[in-house]
Amino acid sequence: MTEWWTSLDLFMKILWSIAIATSLIFIIETILTFIGIDHEIDADFDTSMDGGFESEPSMNLYTFRNLVNFLLGMSWTAILLKEKIASTALLMVIAVAVGVMLVAAVMYMFKWLSKMQQSGNIDVYKCAVGCIGKVYLTIPAERKGAGKVQITINNSVREYDALTDSENSLKTGSSIKVVEVLDPSTLLVEEMNSLII
After folding, report:
1. Contact between 90 and 77 (Cβ < 8 Å)
2. Secondary structure of residue 156 in the 3-state scheme
3. Which domains are delineated in the chain?
């Protein structure tokens, strides 16, 4: 092993060092991901040069994971093609291109996988205002206490605490409409008066 290492020139020593280090980090990251300890180790850098991906966390270009993937692809490509390509400059251009392609492939794979997952959570701030439902537990008048309402959001019946600005309390069974979301579990509602024509 020592003879092999000493026989390498400085360029190959650097490549082998990068390849071994990034391979070990990649293996550790993979194991942590599979056992569920994949807390975001990614060092996200605030910059506007991230290709416009900041709205999608899985598409952030400047992360520790993408750096590891780039160095992994680049170093192993350079090592494997060193004997076949005589020009060091051409070798590095090809190795860098493979590293970039690996990062792009992994980013788009994660984007594709994230589209496949479904969340049972509902963003009440976006979905609840304007919904119609029924009072489940009487709501005291003028925000003097909370009652409960049941409303349908995305074809699913949900129960929330509710307040009203009405001068009269809203009795169980009354039809209501959501006016405002006060917090993720509390709605401001008003009674829907049935129109008689």
Report:
1. no
2. strand
3. 2-116 (no CATH), 124-191 (2.40.50.140)
